[in-house]
Every structure is written in C-alpha cells, then in structure tokens.
Amino acid sequence: MHRWIKGWIIGIASGAAGAILAVSPLYMPLERALGLPWLLRMRGPIDPPTGVAVVAIDRQTGPSLDLGELPGDWPRSVHAKLIDALVQAGASTIVLDLDLRHPTDPQQDLALARAMADAGRVVLREEPLGARQPIFERQRGQGGPVRGESFQRPLPAFAQAARGLGPDPLDRPPGPVGQFRVFGAGASAAPTMPAVALQVQALGVYPRLLARLKSSGVRAAAELPQRVEAIEGPEGLRRLMLALRGIFVLHPGLPGQLAAGCPEGVSEAEDAGLDPGQLMAALGALYGGPAERHLNLYGPPGTMTTIPYQSVVKGEATDPPPEALDFTGKVVFVGLSGRLGPGQTDPVDTVFRWDDGVDLSRVEIAATAYANLSTDRSLKTLDGWATPAGLFLFGLSVGAILYLLPAIIGVPLAVGLAVLFALAGQWGFARADLWLPVATPLLVQLPFALSFGLITQYLLFGRRARHISQAISDYLPEDVHLGLAAQRGDSPSLDRVVYSTCLATDMSGFSTVAEQMGPGELARFLNDYFESLAEPLRRHGVAVTEFRADAIMCAWTGDPLDPDVRKRPILAALDAAQAIAEFKNRHRLAGARLRIGMESGEVYVGRAGGGGHFVYSIVGDSANTASRIEGLNRYVGTQILATRSVTAGFDDALQLREIGRFRLLGKTDVLPIVEVLSHQLDATPAMRELCERFAQALDLFQRAEWAKAAERFKLLLGSYPQDGPTGFYLDLCDRYMKGQATSEDPRVVTMSAK
C-alpha cells in the first residue's frame, strides 16, 4: 500500500473519531467539563446587561435588620417592605426566588400578599414535586419520549397575588452547571422563572406583539387575549406563554419579523427605561428558540449588579453607592447570596468561583439566565452536521500531516493547526457567544493522530534502529544503550565517575572443569553459568555488569546517602549464592565454590580500551578492592565477604560476622572485613552461636592474647569443624605464638597473595 494512502487512512480514522464523538452522548459532557471552562476562563468576565439586578440576602442581612440569620425565620412583612421599596425605586419586575410554600403568622402572610398584589409585577418560584413521568411530545414534525414534571406552588394567597409563577431554570446535573431550561419537558411544560420574568417585563409591548402576529397572518393570534388586562393572573400568563410557544414553533420565521418596524398605527410601549424594539426581539428569541439553552456566565459572584437586601429595605446604601438603589426599568431578582454561609444557601458549581470557595448562588444563576434571554446571549452551537463535519476535517488534516511529513515538521504543523482551531473557537466564543468544540479536537483527536501517525512512522522507519539498539543492549547496560540512542552517537556524558557498591565474583575449580570440555560445550556451559549468576543481579537492579573471563564485576550506582546502594548488592549476593548452588547441582560440580567480594566508593563507569575497540568497564580502587576481597574468601574459607562500610546499618536485617581487620595485597589501608551469612530471619541458632563465640575469640586475638585466642578457636573448631575463618585464625595464632608474625601489628592480618 502506498504511503500516501496510509496517511489518508490515518487522517480519516482521526476525523471519524471526532465526528462519531460529536454525535454521541459523550460529546456534550466532555465539552462542558473541559472545553467550556477553558473558553470561559480565556474570555474572562464580561459586563452583564444593565436592566437586571440582584438583591442578595447575605450573612449581614439578618443582624443588620435585627432579625435571625435565615430568612425563613423572618416576619414576612419584611419582604412586603422590600417589595414596596423596589416599586418606589422603579423596579419594573420583581422575582422572589424564595420558598413561600409554608404558612407563618397569618397577618405577616397577608401583608406580603397585599404588597405583591399592589405591585402587580412579582414573579414567584415553584418547587419541583415528585418524580418526572414519561410523556410524548411532538414538535416540528418529530415525536419522541420526553419527561413531564409537576410543581408545588407557593401558598394560594401568594400565588393569586403574584403576576407570574415559574420553576427554577436549572436541571442541576452533577458537575458544573452548563444549561438552563426556558420551558420544561413536555408539550404542556411550564415556562421557567427567567422566562416568566421576561414576559412580565415585556407586557408593555404586548399590543405590538399581537399586531405583528396578526400582520404576519397568524390565525391563532385571534384566540389570544386582545388586551393586557385580559391576561388574568399567573394562570392566564402561563396560558398565554404556552400559546405563544406553540405559535412560534409552528411559524419558525416569526422571530426575525419581530425585530422589524411596528405596524402602522400601533403605539410603542412608554415604560421608562425600556427599549420596545429590544423587548420584541427578546420575545422572538424566547418563544422561537430551544427549550433548553447553554448558560452564558458573565463572571464570578457579584458580577451582576448586586445590592444587599438590607440596603433596599432601609433605603440607604454605602457600598454600593446610593445611586445603585435606582431600579428604574430593571428586573430585580431577590434571593440567597452565595456569601450567606455554609449550609445556609444553595450554591451552584460553576467555572467562576472566588478563592474563598464562594460559588454563584441560585438567584444569580436565575438572573444570569434572564439576562441571556433578554439580550439573546445564551451560548449558541453549530446546527446539524456542521460540528461533526468540522471535527472530521480537522482530524483528517492532522492525521495526514503527522503521517506523511517527517515528525520534526509534522508535529509542529499539527500542533499549530490545533492551536489555530482553538483560537478560532475562542474568537467565536468571545465575539459571537458561539460555543465551538475545543476539548474534542485538542484532547481526543490530536493525541489520537499523534499516537497513530507517529507510531506508524516509527514502525515504518524505526525497524533498523530497533535492531541496532537491541544489538547494543546485549553489550551495554540498559541506561547506557538507551542514552546512546537518545544522543544519536558518541556522548562523553555517558562516561562518568559515580558512587557505587562493586561486587566481584569468581568460582573456584571452574577452570579445571572447563578444560575438559570442547569449545561448543564450554560456550553453552559458560552461558548457563553467567545467566544463572546474572539473573539475581538483574533482579536486584544492578547498574553495570562486566564479564571478565569466568568472573563478573558489577556495580550498583546511586547517592552515597541512599542505603539501597549498599543493601541491594548484599541481597543479590545471597541470591546469587543460591542460584549457583542450583547450577552446581545441574552440572554436578561438587567441588566448585562461588566467591563474592564487595566494596563501596567512587568508580569510573564507562568506555575503556583503545585502537578503536572499547569495552564498557568499571574502573577504580573500589572495584580493585572488591576483587581482592573476593580472593580473600579462598584463604579464610568463606563465600561472601564485604567491607564494614558496605554492611553498616544492616545488622538487624542480616546475619553478619566480623572476621577481622585485613591489609590486602597491594593496599595500604586496613579494612574491617565482614562475612555475610544469611538473612536474619533465615539464621539458625547454630549460626548465631558460631558468630557469638567467634566474636569472643576474635576479640582475644585483636588484644594480642594469642594463647587464649587459640584455646577459644580450638574449642570452636571442635564444634564447627568446617568453619573456615576459625581454622584460619587458629593457624594464625599458632604461628604468632611461635614468633612467626609477618607484620608490625599482628592484630592486622596482612595478605601476601590475591
């Protein structure tokens, strides 16, 4: 298959992933959770319309009015006083976002009902009642199952006195709020509180609306109330709104006609501060738009014009200033503020939140929904197949680019295209309230295209590199060969001086066995031996392994303060001894014995050699010392030896035995040498007794009390005749008692051979 065909296949797959996601139920939750918050944060707060305000009940309201903290404990005459004050200040519509379902003092309830009736402009909230029931809705020629709702009204006295009733606009799904309802579910669904507030606000232009409907040939207009006065109470207003909703659904061209000039002879509304043309356009968008819309947030709590409840009741304000109490022509929402306090309000999770955790309150969301409706600024999305098609073209482009072009060109170009896509989305969002997909192309399609495009390129062009890398890994440590691949050639930084614990191994009697084998058999024998020995070393994280004939030198590198740099090689040594015991059983090497020596310190790890041929080697005094300690096992009859600096701090975890202070061949320093016998949990009582009695005898030796030391070693050898260090020191004591000491300090054992 030609390469360009594969490139377009990858592009089509990437585009199809976005298009399929766009028509799936996962698309909107993904964009709402990730894309919309990014767009809102990038855009930042914007100025809300001036025709809406919030009167907030916060934590200062009750104390400043000599009332309790919660409004449910207040006398309702306080709300009546608030309504009177708002009417006097010129508010054209008042929305009480309060729970008024339960009676209190009859006189207080009566005072509030009278204030509502006198105002003639109050909208109240209905509360959801019971579960939603499946019903069947048929709109615009399409039918399908939807869900109906029922609501509990405020007290009858309040409901009758109100100008309109409506439920909360939020459906309240889990997570940040993103949508609000204009009309509820079902063919007879009630308009929500912000929609009712807009219709009450626009009653002044109802004659103009009626005239426009008639001039447009809408026969159902004759069945509507012909005068505002004929719209009787909240029920009459609701019937009117549902009838208008049905008319606009059947006549989708009406919203555009409402913004045209007024029919001849029809007078404009004269309400102070109101723009009749804007109200007509808002009504067209209200009734002709979708029943559920995307909320366009203006900013964090307090972005909407917000006045403390107590300032309105008292008729005085300092913050905000007194002129803020002028509500002429405004729709005023009254409710609980997000700053009322924990457990005393109903906060709504949104992108905009103060640093102290205060969210937008429900009344601010209702006011925001009204502001969106009144200016037709709810967020808009692309219609029909525009979104899937756009995502398909984006995925097709980046997928093909990432496969057909070299990665050094394709990746920046694809990322640049994604950035342009995101910037276009941000521009449309900020300029036209157009919500384009951002999360899907950036977080789904681009990673998809990057992964498949680059992986396919890697599979196409990287086969030879992988083979070379595999060959190198057979001869170099993993981090080194990966480093060489990353550096693309020679890198002096791979040669380094590091702190490490070096471990040297050898096996006695190995050469005698090997010389009896043919070359092929010997090679298989050596490979099995080295694999048996290397496996426990790898398991414990060895950094560098160097094979030297039938011996191994390896190193664990790291921070000198990290005890694992010393502990891991000790554990590897114990496991290696067990592995070689099994190896000996497989090959019947009864006389062979593994010897291990360990020392810590700085070493050079890197290339060594010349003439164009190098090996990766471990070079340094610590490596030489580890090799000398490995050889010491031969003389003292042990298997695993280390300096005290290696085993320091592990006495509780390991069964260790101090075997004395030694000056090894070619060394000037005296080294305390320790034998590693086993894990502490695996130590037998006999092993612990041996270590304890040996330590007592060694103490006498190091105090130069040769006769007493010899006596102790002789008794110990009687109990443990195979113990090498005991026999070594017994022989040494005998020679010292005969005056055959070979060093200035006979308490230090000076070795004259490797």
SSE arrangement:
Layout: H1 3-22, H2 27-43, E1 52-57, H3 61-64, H4 77-88, E2 93-96, H5 106-119, E3 122-128, E4 133-139, E5 142-148, E6 151-152, H6 156-161, E7 164-167, E8 179-181, H7 193-201, H8 206-215, H9 233-250, H10 254-258, H11 276-288, E9 292-294, E10 305-308, H12 309-314, E11 331-336, E12 347-348, E13 360-361, H13 362-375, H14 386-404, H15 407-432, H16 439-461, H17 463-473, H18 478-487, E14 496-508, H19 510-514, H20 519-539, E15 544-548, E16 551-557, H21 564-587, E17 593-610, E18 613-619, H22 621-636, E19 640-643, H23 644-647, E20 654-663, E21 671-679, H24 685-702, H25 706-719, H26 724-737, E22 748-750
Parallel strand pairs: 1-10, 1-11, 2-3, 2-11, 3-7, 17-19, 20-22
Antiparallel strand pairs: 3-6, 4-5, 8-9, 12-13, 14-16, 14-17, 15-16, 17-18, 19-21, 20-21
Helix pairs in contact: 1-14, 1-16, 2-15, 4-5, 7-11, 7-13, 9-11, 14-15, 14-16, 15-16, 20-21, 24-25, 25-26
What's this entry about, in short?
The protein has 754 residues and is of the alpha/beta class. It contains 26 helices and 22 strands.
Over all CA atoms, what is the radius of gyration?
44 Å
Structural class: alpha/beta
Please give the count of helices.
Answer: 26
Largest sheet: 9 strands, mixed
Would you count the extended β strands for me? 22
Instruction: Sum up the overall morphology in one term.
Output: elongated
Low-pLDDT stretches are: 131-147, 262-273
What is the terminal separation in angstroms?
66 Å
Question: Approximately how much beta-strand content do the residues carry?
Answer: 15-25%
Helicity, as a percent range: 40-55%
Mean pLDDT: 84
